[in-house]
Amino acid sequence: MQCNAIGCLEHRGLASQYVQDWVAVKRAYALSIDSQEQAKINTILAGRDASPMFRPGTKLTPAGDVASSAEFSIAAKSPGLCGYNTTASPSQTITLGAEFNPDSSHIGLGAELFVVIEFGGALFMRDQQGGFAPWDFSLSTLIPAARVKSLSSSHDLTIFSGALGLTGNLSIFLAYRTGAGEFVYSPIPAVLTVRQ
Questions:
Q1: What mean pLDDT, rounded, does the chain reach?
Q2: What tens digit of pLDDT does each residue of 66-120 get?
Q3: pTM score, two decimals?
Q4: What CATH number is attached to the domain comprising 90?
Q5: Nearest CA-CA partner of 70 in 193, 188, 184, 157
Q6: CA–CA separation, 193 vs 131, rounded Å?
Q7: Pick from 93, 99, 111, 59: which is nearest to 75 by CA?
């Protein structure tokens, strides 16, 4: 079974394949997906009611934040489950993945990818070795989770794999910075609730 942040890619019939092809065309031509369309895509691909996990991108500029065509998404899967799972138990083995869909003007540029998780009132950044370190909310101290030589229309990154061993809400923020210094982030986090 394959899974990525746009939902389950295991065969779920013609409707699922059609939606997967639809999303691929939208991505290839940098076409937008409105919230109603995204909700329906999520439902079909997950095979059940699902909350949308796509988060719009915002570009940080000296004049203030501006909207971007970038999108970010998160998916949690565990054996036998795939898609937009938003809950897990502390002992459940999960794979938490991120999908970065850059602004079309950034495709082809080198970039750093960032993952920040807020838990218990503290911020943690994922490093390139898969570890997490405290973060002080300063862009100058932000460590990239990965570096890419050339942004394509979509990049997947595994954030974590294993049992979390904790309870509470994980608020997950994604961002990237191009080699030219443009910083694009998701101001709205995806939330994973871990409970018994």
A1: 81
A2: 999 899 988 877 775 555 677 888 998 888 889 899 999 999 999 999 999 999 9
A3: 0.74
A4: 2.60.40
A5: 184
A6: 20
A7: 99
Within 8 A by CB and 6+ apart from 131, the residues are: none
Q: How many domains does the chain have?
A: 1
Residue 18 lies in a domain: no
In terms of DSSP bridges, do strands 87-88 and 190-194 run parallel, antiparallel, or are they unpaired? Answer: parallel
Of 36, 33, 111, which is closest to residue 73 (Cα–Cα)?
33
Question: Domain for residue 4, yes or no?
Answer: no
26 lies in a domain? no
Whether residue 69 is contained in a domain is answered as yes
Q: What is the pLDDT of residue 188?
A: 87
- Give the C-alpha separation, 53 to 83, whole Å: 10
Structural domain of 144: 53-194
DSSP-assigned letter for residue 117: E
User: Distance between CA 26 and CA 21 in Å, rounded?
Assistant: 9
Please, is 67 exposed, middle or buried when counting C-beta atoms within 10 Å of its C-beta (0-12, 13-18, 19+)?
A: exposed
